Amino acid sequence: MAKATAKAGSDPTLARNRQASHEYAILETFEAGIELAGTEVKALRDGRTQLREGYVRIENGEAWLLGVNIAEYTQGHRRNHEPQRRRRLLLHRREIQYLGAKVAQQGLTLVPLRIYLKRNRIKLEFGLARGKKLWDKRQAIAERDARRDVERITARAQRLG
Fold first, then answer.
1. pLDDT at residue 152, rounded to an integer
2. Which has the closest alpha carbon to 34: 101, 129, 124?
3. pTM higher than 0.85, yes or no?
4. What's the confidence (pLDDT) of residue 57?
5. Domain range for residue 111?
């Protein structure tokens, strides 16, 4: 009998960067594997990570995940991992070259969106993003509120219907 990667009905997402969609306009998303130590995997499965300050940088033909805090594993030993260390991302060379060229354009950055399980492998979803200005954020909030109002009115009309 095959072993399930996640419990029935549960989300395989281990960590999510909720601020990313508010702070950035996500243009494209990509998936990459992450080179991790054993205690990092256990800490991620415990949900002890922070993606908010994280970013991806392309250096010397390699992609690196920086600024992500994976807390030390509480039941780890003296060779426990460093919480703020650089982690290499596993991408194809063409993807790295493409991303390097896009980031060289003014105003684009690579932002981690979520860390999740896929067939018992830990993956990172990150986005090619452009920073939003204050008025962009206000506009997005106004659109979201307008959508909620419309949904509320249609739901009320259907109930009374």
1. 92
2. 124
3. no
4. 93
5. 13-132
